[in-house]
Amino acid sequence: KHLQTICLSIFIFFCSACNYKFPAHEVFISSEQMGKQYSMIYLDSAGRSFQNYADNIVKQFQQTFSYAYDPSAINRFNNCDSFIILNDTEKEIFEAVLLAIKEDSTIINPPSDSETISSLFMKMQLKNDTLFKYDPSFKFDISSMADNYLLQQLAALLGNYRIENYKITVNNAMRVKGKNFKGDSWEEE
Asked: Are 131 and 140 in contact (CB under 8 A)?
């Protein structure tokens, strides 16, 4: 038994020294969270499923930004006159969405010009856990960017685990990176 352990250790050492890549497993996950459907196909040598993590990302986003969920932060904000208090999760998601809009206006579909983006930030502001509304008639509508934002977040999840080959869909929006299991581009499927 001791000899088997030594042989296995030597094998692992030589495989890592020659950059041997273990075969990748194709992993498919799909779910619907509060009316938002998504699916992910990715290649992972360990065959790990990130279903719970992905479900949590989508569910928390929907609880914050779903118009169909009455107590969502977006509904509370759109129905208030001056401000709302956000819980920690809502604050984190709002910060990320507002930062994404500032950094890349193309996340909004169709892309907005800089004048529209700057006028958005003149009508609302996030300070600590308070989201202020400076125009009581203003309604923050992220429906055009929600799917693109979730694609970004789900891609970041896979990136955190060094997954380099994937296809993610959220409703009708799609993001791909790398190659599929056959070695073809994802678009050729």
From this structure: no
* Contact between 168 and 155 (Cβ < 8 Å): yes
Q: What is the pLDDT, as a whole number, of residue 91?
A: 94
> Which amino acid is present at 102?
K
The answer to whether 55 and 39 have CB atoms below 8 angstroms apart is: no
- Among candidate residues 40, 75, 73, the one with its CA nearest the CA of residue 163: 40
Question: What would the mean pLDDT of 80-106 be, rounded to a whole number?
Answer: 87
- Percentage of the chain exceeding pLDDT 70: 80
Mean per-residue pLDDT, 102-123:
67
